[in-house]
Amino acid sequence: MQTTPAALKNKALCAFAHELADIAQPIALQYFRTKLDVLEKQDLSPVTIADRSVEAAMRDRITQMHPDHGIYGEEHGQHGLDRRDIWVIDPIDGTKSFVSGMPTFGTLIAHLRDGAPDLGVIAIPFTGERWTGMAGAPSMFGDSLCKTSGCTSLSKARLYTTSPDIFDAAGLCLFEALSGRAAMRRFGGDCYAYGLLASGHVDAVFEMDLQPYDYMALVPVIEGAGGVITDWQGQALTLASEGRVIAAATPELHREMLGVLASGALDS
User: What reaction(s) does this enzyme catalyze (predicted)?
Assistant: First the structure.
């Protein structure tokens, strides 16, 4: 089988994304479970020297290897968002977990082409676990294929959200409507929950108030594993999305969850 130039480029970009994860891992672990000065950003989320150091190192490498690509980062701003190729990076997804010693924080790396995520990596520095998704290819957990659970019914679903504190009053009502119908609801995990969804251990995730660097890398991973991830209206996630994210193991489960949300919105 002949390898096309596009396939070779995608393979090279995937290798580069893993290089970025390799750069991030030792820096994050250098600061993990140490005494840190935790600052508050304008949105009141915590930020540490670890976040800033990891992102600075990744940005330097992107600029060195792909100076014509745009970058959308959490800590050091955005540039080149009008370019065809954009990297969306979250140096430490789950900073609250990080500063409290929980090992499930991650580094998220996404590549967007023409505004759509075609490559995503969920890297967990403490455990060394990684999920990789590329458009048109099956998702990988490490060197093995991963696949969602196949759950098609909310009544049998294991539903996660990072914390009930992420919801406003209306969002919390919708979460209660969903989780009240689910077989199990659990809290925590940040990006780790989405990796578990891709590997079939979690069936659904429901969250709000996320930023593009929180969700862009998740899209290729979830979709390549057979799942569905959209906003609460079922629309594709983009840089302009409002950060309301629903992910499910199957299209059937996703449709059922969207139906619950529609009913809940009408009732509220």
Answer: L-histidinol phosphate + H2O = L-histidinol + phosphate
pLDDT of residue 246: 98
Shared domain for 196 and 105, answered yes or no, is no
Same domain (yes/no): 100, 166: no
Nearest 5°: phi and psi at 204?
A: -155, 150
> What is the helix (H) or strand (E) element at residue 26, kind and residue range?
helix 5-31
Q: Are residues 207 and 138 in the same domain?
A: no
Q: Do 159 and 210 fall within a single domain? A: yes
Which residues define the annotated binding site?
A: 74, 90, 92-93, 214
**Average confidence (pLDDT) per 10 residues, the chain, 268 residues:** 65 96 97 80 68 95 98 90 96 92 97 97 98 96 98 98 96 96 96 98 98 98 98 97 97 98 71
**pTM exceeds 0.85 for this model:** yes
Annotated binding site for Mg(2+): 74, 90, 92-93, 214
Question: Alpha carbon of 52 to those of 30, 101, 143: distances in Å?
Answer: 13, 18, 30
- Domain span at residue 186 reads 154-267
